[in-house]
Automatic annotation (TrEMBL):
This is V-type ATP synthase beta chain. Transmembrane segments: none annotated. It comes from Hydrogenoanaerobacterium saccharovorans. SUPFAM superfamilies: P-loop containing nucleoside triphosphate hydrolases (SSF52540). Keywords: ATP synthesis, Hydrogen ion transport, Ion transport, Transport. Produces ATP from ADP in the presence of a proton gradient across the membrane. The V-type beta chain is a regulatory subunit.
């Protein structure tokens, strides 16, 4: 049942207040009609007795206290859903902006989603292949997982996001479709154009639903963007049995919009001015990933966030790390040295990969290769630290070999470029070639049977010779 009121009690930034309201509820949609006949939309964000606070999506500029007519629509913010969304570009609140007309929707759903019954969740298994060796081998993305990317201002996380959208796929299974929901929040026009152009040029746009919230769009819309994207993902996964990968960038922009909105409501701030409920708000987004036993599809999330001043203890990455199942950390020094993608291996991990790799999923030797590469690269860092004190010339023969291994690992394994799409077999074979640089006695994370089959020191020697020749 809708309710119509003439006049406003107060206007404060993006918020308006109405007094004497009965029967309205939190999160209900509102339509405001201005004196010139134009309309704006909003939602109820606070109820205090008979006083109602409304958040206006398009801003309050031009609203009149006396002549504005407010209609409370009696339902929450809803997303129009249909499989026709695939291949479309929408704004942050889910309206088409690609010039292709309206979407014929099958149903509408509350963007806040429906809580998943924990009993109906099934443990995430199987993996999504990104074609990026560092991710596929060392921090494997599992279907139903939430695996964030921690980046910094000015780094190449947008390029990495575009590459994942371009290359991501699942192992071919009968009747299984794969799609991507991409949500950009607070991006500039050139970044938005880069994403659209990249998806169209690489021919993947027909499997992508794209939500774009620009930096000059209202912050209110920015708060709605990830919820609209996740509602779309849940519909495609749990009702259309698709495997959906949700990429959201930049979560820090979303949190800053939340902070600004919280401040305008006069709420008591928490750490660095963010609202005290930031943890639960982020959890309400991240926990919408998963697999349930009543559907064949899955929702997997890769939220991307920029760490202010590269500070991993900042509230946004800090709280994200508590909620999610691992992280992929980008390294500024690797980025400055021209390595792409500049993934910092040692602080990155995927907590679910152990149960989604190996025989029947990727390859039987995957776990051994991953463990040994981690262990060997950790010794590279020890050798670098020692070299910074005594000089590289004074290192032992073993440490010098680890230094060579580290250079080859970064040159061949990490640095693969934007257009290189490696299969899991190519990635693991390359890992073995790199491990063959080291003496067999140093490979203590691999059993002897695997070593006999996969250890080929001549390949390692050839890689070193090639690398030194290029240098």
């Amino acid at each position: 049942m809708s309710l119509k009121i003439v006049g406003l009690s107060e206007i404060n930034g993006p918020l308006v207040a109405l007094d004497g309201i009965h029967g309205a509820g939190y999160e209900e949609m509102v339509e405001l009609e201005l004196q010139d006949g134009t309309t704006r939309t909003g939602r109820i964000v606070q109820m205090d007795g008979d006083r109602c606070i409304i958040q206006v999506f398009e801003g309050t500029r031009g609203l009149s206290l006396q002549n504005t007519t407010t209609t409370i629509l009696g339902h929450p913010v809803e997303m129009s859903l249909s499989k026709e969304l695939l291949g479309r570009v929408l704004n942050g609140s889910g309206r088409p902006i690609d010039g292709l007309g309206e979407i014929y929707w099958e149903k509408k759903e509350d963007i806040n989603g429906k809580p998943l019954n924990p009993v109906s969740r099934t443990y995430p298994r199987n993996y999504i292949n990104t074609g990026i060796s560092a991710i596929d081998c060392l921090m494997t993305l599992i279907r139903g997982q939430k695996l964030p990317i921690f980046s910094g201002s000015g780094m190449q996380h947008n390029k990495l996001a575009a590459q994942i959208v371009k290359q991501a796929n699942i192992a071919a299974e009968e009747g299984q479709e794969f799609g991507i929901v991409f949500a950009a929040m607070g991006v500039t026009n050139d970044v938005a154009d880069y994403f659209r152009r990249s998806f169209e040029e690489t021919g993947v746009m027909d499997r992508v639903v794209m939500f774009l919230n620009l930096s000059n769009d209202p912050i209110i819309e920015r708060i709605l963007t990830p919820k609209c994207a996740l509602t779309t993902a849940e519909y495609l996964a749990f009702e259309k049995d698709m495997h959906i990968l949700v990429i959201m960038t930049d979560i820090t922009s979303y949190c800053e919009a939340l902070r600004e909105f919280s401040s305008s409501k006069g709420e008591i701030p928490g750490r660095k001015g963010y609202p005290g409920y930031l943890y639960s708000d982020l959890a309400s987004l991240y926990e919408r990933a998963g697999v349930i036993d009543t559907a064949k599809g899955s929702v997997t999330q890769i939220p991307i966030l920029t760490m202010p001043n590269d500070d991993i203890t900042h509230p946004v990455p800090d709280l994200t790390g508590y909620i999610t199942e691992g992280q992929i950390v980008l390294d500024r020094s690797l980025d400055q040295n021209g390595i792409y993608p500049p993934i910092s291996v040692l602080p990155s991990l995927s907590r679910l990969m152990k149960d989604g790799i190996g025989e029947g999923y990727t390859r039987a030797d995957h776990s051994a290769v991953s463990n040994q590469l981690f262990a060997s690269y950790a010794k590279v860092q020890d050798a670098k630290a020692l070299a910074s004190v005594i000089g590289e010339e004074e290192l032992s023969a073993s440490d010098k070999l680890y230094m060579d291994f580290g250079k080859a690992f970064e040159h061949y394994f990490l640095d693969q470029g934007f257009d290189t799409d490696r299969t899991i077999d190519e990635t693991l074979d390359l890992g073995w070639d790199l491990l063959s640089i080291l003496p067999q006695s140093e490979l203590d994370r691999v059993d002897n049977k695997l070593l006999e089959e996969k250890y080929h020191p001549e390949r390692g020697a050839a890689l070193l010779k090639e690398m030194r020749g290029e240098a």
